[in-house]
Amino acid sequence: MLLGAILSTALVANAASPDPSPAPGAATKHRLTPDAVKAARLKRLENQVGLTADQEAKAKPIIDQYVDDRQATKGDRTKMAALKTKFDSDINAILTPDQQKKLADAQSANAEKLKAARAAKAAASASPSPAKNN
What we know:
Shape: globular
Oligomer: single chain
Helix content: over 70%
Number of strands: 0
């Protein structure tokens, strides 16, 4: 009886203050801060199309607003799609036609990479795993 009381007390204490470190081998999500996302989006756009200083100054508030609005949607896919459409339109408005083509090409290449990665993942999960002998 005393052992049961000690164990239940230990379980309650562990439930109240769980170990902040994940279990070994557990997958953890790495979350970027909104400021890090904004900086990464601006850097990616600079690398993809070669922004001028004037374009960078115009793109920064567009990116900032998009990231902030996206955070506020809390995963609502309909709102996120509308935000993405507006973001793409606003960014294209500050780019030259040559830069717009570069951006479209980069987006197409990224979409193809994503499709290939998804296909590879699906193929890997569909293949049977070897049987274990225990």
